[in-house]
Amino acid sequence: MLVGSMAVSVASALMSxxxxxxxxxxxxxSSSASxxxxxxxxxxxxxxxxxxxxxxxxxxxxxxxxxxxRIRFKLATLTFxxxxxxxxxxxADLLQYHKPTKFTLSSASHLLSVPRHNLSFGSRAFRISxxxxxNYLPPHILQSQTLDSFRLHLKTYYFQSxxxxxxxxxxxxxx
Length: 175
Known about the structure:
Layout: H1 4-26, H2 31-47, H3 55-61, H4 67-85, H5 89-92, H6 126-135, H7 139-142, H8 147-164
């Protein structure tokens, strides 16, 4: 028989791997699908012995990001990898650093150029949504030198944005 904390760890590992696979599908979902997934995560955790009353509290307790924030996290991580390693090349080719016409203090920043698009569906494309999400990140995260450091700072920032002070952190509406 599994001990409570071990059951939570096993459930977390199993669910995280499945949800990561489904993120690309969920980025085009309706809000009801997101709610369904969040509730499913909550039910799974409640069955494994957690006594938290709501799925949001369960997510906070397990240090899981909500679905929308997890999608942003994955996009930002893919963008970091593409910019710093050039892999995968088909994604790295879609990203361009912003080149301002005049020199300003912010011209030395790590901002990406966001191509124009006409349709709202076009905003979901990687070449649009990745730079949009990247440009909303604070400079201390963008200046991370390693992937581990980037992921650590990004998850902390997104966790605080999602749960602790949602109004204090502006977020793009790229999804």
